[in-house]
Amino acid sequence: MPLEGEYEPSATQWVREQVELYESSGGTRGTTLRDTGLPVVIVTMRGAKSGKIRKVPLMRVEHEGRYAAVASVGGAPNHPVWYYNLQADPRVDLQDGPERRSMVAREVTGDERAEWWQRAVAAFSPYGEYQEKAGRVIPVFVLEPGSPTAPGN
Ligand code: F42
């Protein structure tokens, strides 16, 4: 069941424009990171404070129908704001090209994080440099099919 509500575009113009192109083309254009040719997915989630719909492009890290959401923000010292959104409400819609599906986000740690981190760096090698400069452990969520209990349960 796709998330419903008022969409609030990203405050960052190139991000907002990528979401617009991705969605308006039915997931056939705007599906890579600039001219790198590396694939991008769009994760739709609910704002933790505003309750508005937020759409966050992320590098595509997929394994057997599950995806990683890597809260890297280019190695910035702070987690992205969307990290707190997923903590508050793990229900997301994931668009991978033309495919859209409901998923549930779950932050992973320990060996499970290590396994997904390896997949993430294999898909997008700059994640390795980002982790070196971030001064924080970059959080990794796994997005998997299914529906959670309502948040706060
Ligand atoms: N970011 C990554 O972290 N990892 C990636 O792999 C990645 C890939 C990528 C590919 C293409 C592309 O176009 C962008 C890509 N990005 C990637 C950037 C990503 O899409 C985000 O722009 C970035 O991670 C920063 O996320 P952010 O949530 O910190 O964005 C800020 C700038 C933002 O939008 N802030 C809003 C604002 O108005 O300032 C608020 C957003 C929000 O969710 N507000 C919450 C609400 O309630 O609505 C409040 C949350 C709270 O607790 O305050």
Description:
The structure is a single chain. The chain is α+β, with helices and mostly antiparallel strands and 153 residues long. The chain has one domain (13-144): Electron Transport, Fmn-binding Protein, Chain A (Pnp Oxidase, Chain A). Helix content is 28%, strand content 28%. It has helices at residues 13-24, 81-88, 110-123, 126-134; strands spanning 40-46, 53-59, 62-63, 66-70, 91-96, 99-108, 140-145. It has a 7-stranded antiparallel β-sheet, sandwiched between helices. It is globular. 29% of the residues are buried. The model has no long low-confidence stretch (mean pLDDT 95). The structure holds coenzyme F420. Coenzyme F420 binds next to helix 1, strand 2 and helix 2.
Write a concise keyword list for the protein shown above.
single chain; 153 residues; alpha+beta; Pnp Oxidase, Chain A; seven-stranded antiparallel sheet; 28% helix; binds coenzyme F420
Amino-to-carboxy terminus distance: 19 Å
Q: Give the tally of β-strands.
A: 7
User: What is the mean pLDDT?
Assistant: 95
SSE arrangement, N to C: HEEEEHEEHHE
CATH architecture descriptor name = Roll
List the helices and strands and how they pair.
Blueprint: H1 13-24, E1 40-46, E2 53-59, E3 62-63, E4 66-70, H2 81-88, E5 91-96, E6 99-108, H3 110-123, H4 126-134, E7 140-145
Task: Offer a quick outline of the entry.
The chain is built from four helices and seven strands, in the order αββββαββααβ.
